[in-house]
Amino acid sequence: FEKKLGLFDLIPDECMICHCKFDKTNKEMVSTWQVTVREKDKIVRVYCPSCWSKAQNLLNELGIKKNEEQKRED
Hints:
This protein is an alpha+beta fold. The protein is built from four helices and two strands.
């Protein structure tokens, strides 16, 4: 937990795709935006709901499974 909390400072202030502003203090944004963390690389990215939805739809159209689904099958 402390390790992940240490990455809190790396959370960007905008969506990785559309650059819409992200406010870490806004409860609605924190609960609706997607955050991805690559602990090894110390990379944190945020995606607004619109961009995340578009990405998920594209993956579905291409027949690519989400990481969580791939891990469950392994």
